Structure formats: structure tokens, C-alpha cells
């Protein structure tokens, strides 16, 4: 039976809550949640199917726990692993850096051999710039969430995204 490793870090609780909501929507597959603030990133290597959640802070910066693990993450081999990303940001207050941390994480995963799955369309968002866009600029590299400006959209977006992830994972 396939297991999904869901790794996240959360400063205010938003990313943790979203990780739990995503895990709660996944049915028929074991999902193991890992808060990297306490668990680190070393156990990523134990999963072929991964969901990674990250929030963007300040002016396009990594969330502090991801930042603390960034060097260790650079040693993780993602070859043969399918990775779905979700990012949390503020498109109004920080529209020039919306979800930049998710973009940085995507770059790291791909550079280390991982396969990104389940991109998310940019329709319905208002932002100036983002490192989390695909090469064509028509999709985010993963699920885009904004608990500041669009908290009412989160549930529906999760409900639409999770089946795409599971399909891409082949489970």
C-alpha cells in the first residue's frame, strides 16, 4: 500500500491547518503528517509520494522552519519521487512576492530530481509577481492558497486539487 508523506511547517497555524485539511480529504491512502519544525526533513527519503506545504514570509522569504532545514533539504535525493506542493501567501499585502517560497521549493525539488505534479491555475488571484509560476506563466507549480484575502476559497480549492494529486500519484 502506498503512503503519502505530507511535510509542512507553520508559524501562525495556517499551513498546519491546511495540511490537516488536505490529509482529511485523502481517502483510501495512508497519509503521514510531518511538521518539519520538530521532525526535520530527513524522513522525506522514506516516501515516493510527497506533499510539501510552505508559506511565504515578508518579502518573498522562506518560512523560518523551512529556512532552518534548507541546507539539509539540499541533500535529499528526489529522483523517482512525485511531489505535489501547496503554498500559503498573501496576494494583496505581498503581491510582488506571492508564493515565492513555493517557487523556491519547486526549484529545489526539480533540481534534485523530483517530479512536480498537480499544478494550479492562476485564475481567481490578483498578484503582481510570483516565483511559483510555471514556465508558461499560466499556472502555479502547486496549490495556491491565501488565508488573508481568500480564506473562503480554501476548502473548495483543496477539494478540487486533492483528486488531481491522487490521480498524478496513481493511487
Automatic annotation (TrEMBL):
Q: Which PROSITE patterns match?
A: FLAVODOXIN (PS00201), FLAVODOXIN_LIKE (PS50902)
Task: Name the source's superkingdom.
Answer: Bacteria
Q: Name one Pfam family in it.
A: Flavodoxin_1
This chain's protein is named Flavodoxin
Q: Which UniProt keywords apply?
A: Electron transport, Flavoprotein, FMN, Transport
Which NCBIfam families does the UniProt record give?
Answer: flav_long, PRK09267.1-5
PANTHER family this protein is in?
A: FLAVODOXIN 2
InterPro entries (UniProt xref): Flavodoxin, Flavodoxin/NO_synth, Flavodoxin_CS, Flavodoxin_lc, Flavoprotein-like_sf
Q: Which cofactor does it need?
A: FMN
**Which family does the similarity line name?**
Belongs to the flavodoxin family.
Q: Where is the Flavodoxin-like domain?
A: 4-166
Functional summary from the UniProt entry: Low-potential electron donor to a number of redox enzymes.
Amino acid at each position: 500500500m502506498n503512503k503519502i508523506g505530507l511535510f509542512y511547517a507553520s508559524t501562525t497555524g495556517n499551513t498546519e491547518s491546511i495540511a490537516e485539511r488536505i490529509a482529511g480529504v485523502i481517502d483510501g491512502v495512508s497519509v503521514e503528517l510531518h511538521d518539519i519544525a520538530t521532525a526535520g526533513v530527513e524522513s522525506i527519503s522514506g516516501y515516493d509520494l510527497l506533499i510539501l506545504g510552505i508559506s511565504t514570509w515578508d518579502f518573498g522569504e522562506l518560512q523560518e522552519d523551512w529556512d532552518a532545514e534548507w541546507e539539509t533539504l539540499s541533500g535529499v535525493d528526489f529522483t523517482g519521487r512525485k511531489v505535489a506542493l501547496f503554498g500559503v501567501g498573501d496576494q494583496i499585502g505581498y503581491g510582488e512576492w506571492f508564493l515565492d517560497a513555493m517557487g523556491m521549493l519547486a526549484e529545489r525539488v526539480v533540481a534534485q530530481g523530483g517530479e512536480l505534479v498537480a499544478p494550479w491555475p492562476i485564475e481567481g488571484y490578483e498578484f503582481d509577481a510570483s516565483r511559483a509560476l510555471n514556465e508558461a506563466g499560466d499556472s502555479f507549480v502547486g496549490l495556491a492558497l491565501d488565508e488573508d484575502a481568500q480564506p473562503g476559497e480554501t476548502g473548495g480549492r483543496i477539494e478540487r486539487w486533492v483528486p488531481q494529486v491522487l490521480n498524478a500519484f496513481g493511487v
